[in-house]
């Protein structure tokens, strides 16, 4: 009983000292209140029962906090693993794409080397037919170009002739006008 009375006196003393303190230290006072409550729970009644409940309360609080932190950590790890998995899948897809491009390039290279070998050895192949067609086309284009150049020369000559005739016509008109006056 005497422990209960001394406990009530301590509570009044703590309350008055807390009410006297400034409002800026409210966070510190709330911490001290929690601390006081835990001490109260530990000192009141039977020490075994209250100690067990305060221990259980503290343990449950810390267990819940630990569970939350571990769940958060697991979620972050899963997210990172997911990111690594996505990056890995992307890298694998890129590698496959590059391998296929490499294979097609190798095939094209071997075909070109075969054609080169055939042309160097004088063996005609499909490429030689194309070369002949290109040569014929080139020759016909060159012929057309030379014909056009000749036409341009003729056109230039005709323009000069036309200008000369205009000048002569103008001179004749002047002479006729002088004679008619």
Descriptive account of the structure:
With 181 residues, the protein is an all-alpha fold. The protein has a domain at 59-122. 92% of the residues lie in helices and 0% in strands. It is built from four helices and no strands. Residues 1-67, 118-138 are annotated as: Disordered. Residues 17-31 have a biased composition (Low complexity).
Brief descriptors of the model:
181 residues, mainly alpha, 4 helices, elongated
C-alpha termini separation: 158 Å
Listing every helix as H and every strand as E from the N terminus to the C terminus, the arrangement reads HHHH
Structural class call reads: mainly alpha
The helical percent reads over 70%
Tell me the β content: under 5%
| Sheet of most strands | none
| Radius of gyration over all CA atoms, rounded | 53 Å
The overall pLDDT, averaged over residues, is: 77
Protein name: Protein phosphatase 1, regulatory subunit 12B
GO molecular function, one term: phosphatase regulator activity
GO cellular component, one term: cytoplasm
Organism: Iconisemion striatum
